[in-house]
Amino acid sequence: MRRWSFTPPKCRRSGPTGSRSRRRSDAAGAITTPIAVTIAGSDSSGGAGIQADLKTFSALGVYGASVITALTAQNTQGVTAIHPVPAEFVAAQIDAVFGDLAVGAVKIGMLGTVASIEAVVQALDELPDGTPIVLDPVMVSESGAELLERDARSALVTRLLPRVTVVTPNVPEARALLQTARARGRSRADLSTPDPTQRDDVDSLARAVHRLGPQVVVVTGGHRERAIDVFFDGRTLVEIPGERYADGAAHGSGCTHSSVLAARLAWGDTPLAAARIAKRRASEAVRDGLAGVGAGAGPVDVLGVT
Hints:
globular, single chain, ten-stranded mixed beta sheet, UDP-N-acetylmuramoyl-L-alanine:D-glutamate ligase, 33% helix, alpha/beta
C-alpha cells in the first residue's frame, strides 16, 4: 500500500474567533437546522469516512460540513493507498468551518498522523464550551490497512481522548487504547483490575477506557458474540442491545454509528439517548446495506436508497 506525501505551502491560520452559539436562530428567534462537522478521511468508494458521515447527518436532519484529514484509494475490497492531508491544511479547513458555521457537534474519525491530531486538538479550543465532540478512534480498516500511524496512537490517547464528550471504540479498538496507555506508563491498577485487554469483559473495558479521560464511553458490540453496546459515563453502566444482521452489508457501520450519535447530540439529546438511537440506526443501515455494490463488503445504507 502506498503513502503519498508532498511539501505544502505555508498556511496562516485566520478567521473569526470568539464564542458562537451551538445553533443559530432566525430573525424570529426560531431554532434553525443543527450543524455537525466531520473531521475524517475520505473513502473513494463512498462507503465509509466523510462520505458515510455526511450521508448520516443528512438522514438525521442535520447540516453536515467536513474537514478532510486524508485521502484514501479504496473500494469495497480494501485500501490500496493513503495520502495524508498536511496538518496545516487540516487546520485551514477547520478555521474556515469553525470561523463561519455555528457548530452544534463534531465527529472525529480517521486522523492518520500526530500532526493532524495536534491540529485538531488546538482547533477544539475555538469551540464554545460544551460543544459535543464524538471520537471514533479509527486505527485499522476492515480490510486490515493501518489508518493511524503507530506513533500517533499515543497522541490520540494522551492529547485527544481527554477532550472528547463520547468515544465509540469497538472491542479491538478499546483494547488498543488501553495497551497504548500502558505503554505510556499508566499503571495496570489505574486502568482496570482484572486486565480487560486479556478477556472479553466489556464492562471492564468501558470503565478502563473512561479512566483515560473521555466523559462517556460507548464500546460497540459488532465484534462480540451478541451485538450489545456498553455505555458508561462514570456513574451509570448501561447495556444497549441490538439486532445482528449477518446477511447485511457493514462497510461504514462504525462511521455511521458515531455520526448518528453526533447528530443526535447536535439536536440536544443526552449521550445515553443519542447512543440508543445510534445503535438502532446503525443496525438498520447494516440490515438495509447495499450488498450488491462492489465485489467486497458492501456499504451500509442509512439513506434508504433501496
